[in-house]
TrEMBL record, chain A:
Annotated GO CC locations: mitochondrial inner membrane; proton-transporting ATP synthase complex
Single Gene Ontology MF annotation: proton-transporting ATP synthase activity, rotational mechanism
Compartments, record wording: Mitochondrion inner membrane
Swiss-Prot/TrEMBL keywords: Hydrogen ion transport, Ion transport, Membrane, Mitochondrion, Mitochondrion inner membrane, Transit peptide, Transport
Family of the protein in this entry: Belongs to the ATPase epsilon chain family.
InterPro entries: ATP_synth_F1_dsu/esu, ATP_synth_F1_dsu/esu_N, ATPsynth_dsu/esu_N
Claim: Ion transport is one of the keywords in the record: yes
Lineage: Eukaryota, Rhodophyta, Bangiophyceae, Galdieriales, Galdieriaceae
Pfam hit, one: ATP-synt_DE_N
Name of the protein: ATP synthase F1 complex delta/epsilon subunit N-terminal domain-containing protein
TrEMBL record, chain B:
Coiled coil: none
Organism: Galdieria yellowstonensis
Topology of this chain in the membrane: Peripheral membrane protein
UniProt-annotated location(s): Mitochondrion inner membrane
Cross-referenced NCBIfam families: ATPsyn_F1gamma
GO CC list: mitochondrial inner membrane; proton-transporting ATP synthase complex
SUPFAM superfamilies: ATP synthase (F1-ATPase), gamma subunit (SSF52943)
A Pfam family matched in the record: ATP-synt
UniProt name for this protein: ATP synthase subunit gamma, mitochondrial
Molecular-function GO terms, alphabetical: proton-transporting ATP synthase activity, rotational mechanism
Length: 163, 327
């Protein structure tokens, strides 16, 4: 009887029973995985994805979130978000935003996010020197603050690319 | 051209209850009256007197109705194409706006109704262009209802989009504090939303109510109000956030302010996107109705035209025959 079940299982299209298996795995591991939403205003980078860990640049320093993390609200500063998924690491650069860690899920809402490998080293260098000179030449406090933010973001990008 | 414009309004407003400024309704003229008359089939006396001229009038009327139906059809197709674009845009923004929802539910929504009497800010999200069915007048009606019923609160109105101004300026012009137009000219984006939010933060308020059209599906848009407590209220009830730890290098008041501004921008962004989608959907169905009305009108006019033509021919035949018999 067992043999017949196995045979009938094998006779089905592989995609069917493979799909079933992966669903079962997800249920079993649900509590050990982190439900992650990672989005910008224009697109979603992760939508209810089940990941192992996520690391993001909170204002107080890099912050790693594992499942069952304490509920937290974190302000993001320019830096690298790392999503660890099935042993793979995906790195994104975010400019700013907020991260919300609740019991059920974690949401990272970034104003801008790009893949780290999409950043152009030379453009970053150029932007950095432009912003630095803008800080020096700024006449009013507002434009100086804007240039200062530019310097911060660019130097964060630079250090992200160097690591 | 003026006649076309008039007919256009007639066609468009037939399907839906659109409120037009009174001056436009007054422009009923001879040829509009003629149309009303033809629909009632009580025109014989008029047409008998000026036989050929009336045929000509019907003919030109038919031509203008036909061209209107072409215009509305094109507008419908443009709206359909735009709807697809804006809907895709909204869909891809959804995770961003939805990401905040569970957090808001446990914090900001708890504060609803607490100390929110006082200075109330109404943000009216309406479209910049008309001819989009009832979306704008529905928002305006809802706001009027709120302003009419409640006498205790002090209200101020922020207008996002041009059409809200048309609907509210007669009664509540003195309440306008900020008017922002051309909000939907470029596709809704977050940077622009932040600029609008900044503009709103310059006002003093105890609570904000955003009125917009929620896009349910292509044929149904629901006027929704979103209440957000003011920053002072949020700071006063900071204990609501006790379940959360805060990770920030600034003091908690500054962090809360930042968080408040961020969530406000996100919620406004959501409302603007919903309204932009609703506008296109409503325009699509309004223009579809208009096209249908125009073709219906065209058929009626064709019937009238043919009847007139036949009676003219019959009249001429009678004249010829009786003339021949008299010889």
């Amino acid at each position: 009887m067992w043999r017949t079940t196995i045979v009938s299982l094998l006779r089905r299209k592989p995609s069917q029973w493979l799909l079933k298996r992966s669903f079962a795995d997800q249920v079993a591991q649900g509590s050990e995985k982190l439900k992650l939403g990672f989005a910008t205003p224009t697109h979603a980078l992760r939508k209810d994805a089940l990941v192992d860990m996520v690391v993001f640049p909170a204002a107080t320093g890099m912050m790693g979130v594992l499942p069952q993390h304490v509920p937290t609200v974190a302000q993001l500063k320019p830096g690298v978000v790392t999503v660890v998924e099935d042993g793979k690491e995906d790195k994104y650069f975010v400019s700013s935003g907020f991260a919300f860690v609740t019991k059920e899920r974690t949401d990272i809402l970034a104003v801008e996010a790009v893949r780290l490998e999409d950043l152009d080293k030379e453009a970053v260098q150029r932007g950095l020197s432009e912003c630095e000179s803008a800080v020096n030449s700024a006449s009013d406090p507002v434009s100086q603050a804007v240039a200062q933010i530019g310097v911060e973001v660019h130097s964060a990008m630079k250090s992200a690319l160097e690591n | 051209m003026a006649a076309i414009h008039r007919n256009f309004l007639n066609v468009v407003s037939k399907g839906r209850n659109i409120v037009y400024p009174r001056s436009m309704n007054r422009c009923r003229t001879a040829d509009q009256a003629l149309l009303v008359a033809t629909e009632n089939n009580s025109v014989s006396s008029r047409f008998d007197q000026v036989r050929y001229a009336s045929l000509k009038a019907v003919r030109s009327r038919m031509r203008s109705v036909a061209s209107i139906s072409k215009i509305t059809k094109a507008m419908k197709m443009v709206a359909a194409a735009k709807l697809r674009g804006v809907q895709a845009r909204q869909e891809s923004s959804k995770p961003f706006t939805a990401g905040l929802k569970s957090f808001l539910q446990s914090t900001f929504h708890e504060m609803e109704g607490k100390d929110t009497s006082g200075n109330n800010l109404i943000v009216a999200v309406t479209s910049d262009r008309g001819l989009c069915g009832g979306v704008n007048s529905n928002v305006v009606r809802e706001i009027r209802k709120v302003l009419h019923e409640d006498k205790n609160n002090q209200y101020a109105i922020v207008l996002c989009g041009d059409k809200g101004r048309d609907g509210l300026q007669r009664l509540y012009r003195n309440l306008f504090v900020v008017t922002i137009k051309d909000v939907f000219r470029a596709p809704v984006n977050f940077a622009q939303t932040c600029v609008i939010a900044e503009e709103i933060f310059k006002q003093k308020f105890d609570s904000v109510t955003i009125f917009y059209n929620h896009f349910k599906n292509a044929i149904s848009q629901i006027v929704t109000r979103k209440v957000i407590p003011g920053l002072d209220i949020v700071l006063k009830h900071a204990e609501t956030f006790d379940t959360y730890e805060f990770e920030s290098d600034m003091d908690s008041a500054q962090t809360l302010t930042d968080l408040y501004e961020f969530q406000f921008a996100v919620q406004l962004f959501d409302a603007l996107l919903e309204n932009a989608t609703s506008e296109q959907a409503a325009r699509m169905s309004a223009m579809d109705n208009a096209t249908r009305n125009a073709s219906e009108m065209y058929q009626k006019l064709t019937l009238t035209y043919n009847r007139q033509r036949q009676s003219v021919i019959t009249g001429e035949l009678i004249e010829i025959i009786s003339g021949a018999e008299a010889l």
